[in-house]
Amino acid sequence: MSARLIDGKAIAAALRQRIAAAVPALPRPPALAVVLVGDDPASQVYVRNKARQTRAAGMVSIEHRLPADTAQEALAALLQGLNEDDAVDGILVQLPLPAHLDEAAIIGQIDPDKDVDGLTEANAGRLVLNRPGLRPCTPTGCVILARDTLGDLTGKNCVIVGRSILVGKPAALLFLQENCTVTIAHSRTRDLPALCRTADILIAAVGRPRMIGADFIKPGACVIDVGINRIEDSAAEKGCRLVGDVDFEAARKAAGAITPVPGGVGPMTIACLLRNTVLAACARKGWPVPEGL
Q: Which CATH superfamily is domain 137-266 in?
C-alpha cells in the first residue's frame, strides 16, 4: 500500500483562483499590509511570496520593512496607523520578531478585525465561542486539506500531535467545528504511537523532524504534516533539505493519504491568508462574502 499524495500546491492554487475571480466583483480590491522587522532570510522569502501572491490575486499589497533595531514604541505606532487606515483591510506582522521586542504585546496591538493571522486574543476567543472571526491560517489550511481528501469529516477521529497556540489548539477547535472527535497529544502523552493509531486524521505539528513513524499511523489514515524542519544533507542543494514531522517514506506505506513536505500545508497557509484578507474586508465593509470562500 502506498498513500495518495495530498497536493497542497494544487488545492492552494484552486483557492487562490477562486479568490482572484471574486476580487473584481468587490467594491474595491482588499488591501493587505505586511510588516517585517529585521533581515531574517527566511522571513524575507515569506514576505516576498505573500506580496507576490497578494498582487496576483488582484489585491493591494503594502509592505513595511523596518530595521532590526526598531523600538517597541515605533512598531506599535506603525500598527496603530495601519489600524486607523480605512484602506487597509488586513495586517500581518511577520514572526519571529527580534528578541528585544515583546511579540505578544505587538500582536495585541493589531485591530482584531484586521488580524488576518487570527492570533489576537479577541479572535482566539471568537474561535472558542464559535463566533464569526478570522481564523489562524495554517490550521484552517489543514481543515481544507482534510475536507478535500475525505469529504464530510463528521464523526472522524482526529488526533493532533502538538498543543501550540499557533497550530495545535486552534486546529483542535476547527476540527471540532467539523464534527470530528478530537484528541490533542503532546510530550507528556502516554503511549503516543498507540493513541495516534486511533486517528482517521492525524495532524503532526510538533517541530521535531521525522518523529511520526509508520507505527503511529492507522492503516488508511489521512496524515497532514505541518512540520518544516531543516536537516543536514550533503547531497542536497546548500547542504540541507526540508523534512516534516512525519517520516514520510515510512508513513506513506501505512497511510491512505499524506501531505508531502514541502508542497503540502505550506502553500495553504498563504492561500488562507489571502482568503482572510477578503473575509476581513467584507466583514468590515458589510460586503457579501463571495461564493466559494
A: NAD(P)-binding Rossmann-like Domain (3.40.50.720)
